[in-house]
Design goal:
The chain is an alpha+beta fold. The protein is built from eight helices and 14 strands. The chain has three domains: about 55 residues, Orthogonal Bundle (Arc Repressor Mutant, subunit A); about 200 residues, BirA Bifunctional Protein, domain 2; about 45 residues, SH3 type barrels (Roll).
Length: about 325
Amino acid sequence: MSKLIPFLRHLDADHFTSGEEIAERLGISRASVSTALSHAEEYGITIERRHGLGYRLNRPIEWLDERAIRAELAPASTFILEVVDQSESTNRALLAAPQHGRVLVAEWQSGGRGRMGRKWQGILGGSLMFSLVWSFPHGPAQLAGLPLAVGAALARAIDAAGVRDIGLKWPNDLLLPTGKAGGILIEMQGDALGPAQVVIGVGLNLYLPEGLDPLDQPIAALEKHGLHLGRNALLGHILAELERTLPRFAAEGFAPLRSEWEAHHAWHQQAAQVHMPDGQTLQGIILGVSDEGALRLQVEGQLRLIHSGDVSLRRYTA
C-alpha cells in the first residue's frame, strides 16, 4: 500500500493521465506504474484504463491534508497533528510514544482493529482513521464513561456535517439506519492512581464501494446519509469537538454528557443480549446509561448496570 498511494496521487477523476507521464514524474518505468496501479481495486479504488490515454479514477479522492485539517481547529489548539500515508495501527504507534495532544492520521491502516481484537476494515480515500493522545491526571478510575463522551463529541460533529440520523450504540459504536458507520477504541498507559495517558482511536466510513463484503455485521457510510463536508473538513470539526469535550470530561466526568449521548442512543428500549467475559449471557431491555457510562439493562424486572470491559452487546429477538 505504501507504494501504491504515491501513484494514485497523480490521478484524478476529471481526465486521463498517461502511464508515461506518471513514470517520468516518479523516475521509474511504465511497467512499474502499471504493476502498482493493478492493485488499486484491492483497496476499494476503481481505475478506468484506456489505451492511448492512460488512467482515470472513477471517483475523486480528497487526500488528507494537514493544513486543511488545521484550518478547522482553534488558533490556540494544542493538538500536534501528523498525517501519514500508512500505519499498521495509529493506536499502536501512539502507545509506543504517548505525548499529550499528539494526533496521528493515516490514509491507510494495515492492522486496524476495534474492541476485543476485532479487525477494522477501512477504505482508501473513503475512511477516516486516526488516533490521539490525551492525559488524565487521576488514572483509570477517572475514565468511566470516556468512550461514551467521545461518542457524543463525534455524533455532535457528524450531525453538524449534515448526517441527522447518526446513532450511538453502547459502548463505542456509531450507527446509521443501514449499518455500522464507525467505532472507537480506547487504550491506556499509566498507574492505577494516575496519571493516565489515553490513546483514543477512531474509524469512520465516509464512502463504501459497491459490493464490499462486511466483516461481521452490516456497514454503512456517512456519504449516503447527508454528509456535506469533505474528509479534511470533517476531521477538523471532529478534532475541534474532541478538544472541547475532553477537558470537560476530565473535570466533570460523563454525567453532563449523558443526556446528549442518550439523545443519539440507537438501541434505546430495545431487547438485547449481553455476553459477559465469564460466558454468562444476560437478556433484557436497554433503558439507557448511568452517569458513569454503565449500560442500564432491565433483566427480569430488575435493573442491572453493565460496565463495558470485554462484554459484547447484540440485539435479541425472543
